[in-house]
């Protein structure tokens, strides 16, 4: 509750200052989900949730402020809130809620992602190349976390590298990952590999493969596999079908194997875009 109140105060100040101090343009987007979810051998539950992003941007300058609200199964939270300065050569974000650096799709419950804390991020975009840098500090502790990444695109190919140094995480001290993607018409292929050192996951490596295919009519099929040097693997399948303007029907299935035990979870829901 305290986190929500502090976050709300930060959001109000940010948007208030942005609106008062400049000629602001307000924009928003979001979605509402409703359906069912369940687990193998368990009961079926109702799935509900919504997301709402609100931004105030300087109509004649580089400043903007954004806040992202979310409500998942009745739990209200502020997902994100930041002030952004977008110059021609770089973009700088000040995030008082929390900023991290995800190790692509290789983490399980954020275990090898950079720990999120209040901090800053810097992105330097170029025509075919971009560089990003993230830094944050744990509240009430002299602990700093850093992350960096580079992305390169060439025709239908994309390449990426990420490195994280985390003084706060119990799972790892440093991590790195590489990513390659290929797009051809309706088909997208992605491959990722990463490893960590230090902490309880010292020496663990993981790999990830994904196939995405867009069918006639706009339906999208996504298949992915996550493997690891641990006793861990995950298979994911999703079908997203547009059934009306701004309405999609989504079915997904996740099968996770760890410690010799397999758990299967499924969801089927309507997503209404706002």
Q: Can you give me a brief rundown of this structure?
A:
The protein is mainly β and 274 residues long.
Structural write-up:
- The structure is a single chain.
- By secondary structure, the chain is mainly beta.
- It contains one helix and 16 strands.
- It has one helix spanning 2-21; strands spanning 24-39, 44-58, 63-72, 75-86, 91-101, 114-125, 129-137, 144-154, 157-166, 174-184, 187-197, 205-214, 220-228, 232-244, 247-258, 261-273.
- It has a 16-stranded antiparallel β-barrel.
- Strand 2 and strand 3 (63-72) form a beta hairpin.
- The chain starts with a helix and ends with a strand.
- The relative contact order is 0.12.
- Mean pLDDT is 90; it is low at 1-6.
- Keywords: Signal.
- InterPro entries: Porin_dom_sf.
- Residues 1-23 form the signal peptide.
Write the layout of secondary structure elements.
Layout: H1 2-21, E1 24-39, E2 44-58, E3 63-72, E4 75-86, E5 91-101, E6 114-125, E7 129-137, E8 144-154, E9 157-166, E10 174-184, E11 187-197, E12 205-214, E13 220-228, E14 232-244, E15 247-258, E16 261-273
Antiparallel strand pairs: 1-2, 1-16, 2-3, 3-4, 4-5, 5-6, 6-7, 7-8, 8-9, 9-10, 10-11, 11-12, 12-13, 13-14, 14-15, 15-16
Question: Termini, distance in Å?
Answer: 27 Å
As a percent range, the share of helical residues equals: under 10%
* Strand order of the biggest β-sheet: 1-2-3-4-5-6-7-8-9-10-11-12-13-14-15-16
The best one-word shape is globular
| SSE series | HEEEEEEEEEEEEEEEE
Low-confidence runs of at least 5 consecutive residues: 1-6
- Average of the residue pLDDT scores: 90
Q: Counting H and I runs of at least 4 residues, what is the number of helices?
A: 1
Beta fraction:
over 45%
Alpha-carbon Rg, integer:
20 Å
């Amino acid at each position: 509750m305290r986190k929500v109140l502090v976050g709300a105060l930060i959001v109000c100040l940010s948007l208030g200052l942005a609106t008062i101090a400049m000629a602001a343009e307000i924009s928003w987007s979001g979605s509402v989900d409703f359906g069912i979810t369940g687990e193998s051998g368990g009961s079926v539950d109702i799935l509900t949730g919504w997301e709402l992003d609100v931004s105030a941007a300087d109509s004649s300058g580089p400043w903007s402020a954004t806040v992202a609200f979310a409500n998942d199964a009745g739990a209200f939270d502020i997902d994100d809130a930041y002030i952004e300065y977008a110059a021609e050569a770089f973009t700088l974000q000040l995030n008082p809620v929390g900023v991290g650096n995800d190790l692509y799709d290789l983490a399980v419950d954020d275990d090898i992602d950079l720990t999120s804390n209040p901090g800053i991020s810097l992105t330097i975009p170029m025509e075919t190349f971009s560089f990003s840098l993230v830094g944050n500090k744990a509240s009430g502790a002299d602990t700093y976390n850093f992350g960096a990444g580079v992305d390169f695109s060439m025709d239908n190919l994309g390449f990426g590298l990420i490195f994280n140094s985390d003084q706060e995480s119990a799972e790892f001290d440093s991590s790195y990952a590489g990513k390659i993607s290929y797009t051809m018409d309706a088909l997208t292929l992605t491959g990722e590999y990463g490893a960590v050192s230090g902490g309880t996951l010292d020496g663990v490596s993981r790999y990830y493969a994904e196939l995405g295919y867009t069918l006639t009519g706009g339906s999208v099929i996504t298949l992915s596999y996550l493997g690891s040097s641990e006793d861990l693997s995950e298979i994911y399948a999703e079908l997203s079908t547009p059934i009306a303007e701004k309405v999609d029907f989504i079915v997904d299935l996740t099968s996770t194997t760890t410690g010799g035990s397999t758990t299967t979870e499924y969801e089927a829901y309507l997503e209404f875009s706002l």
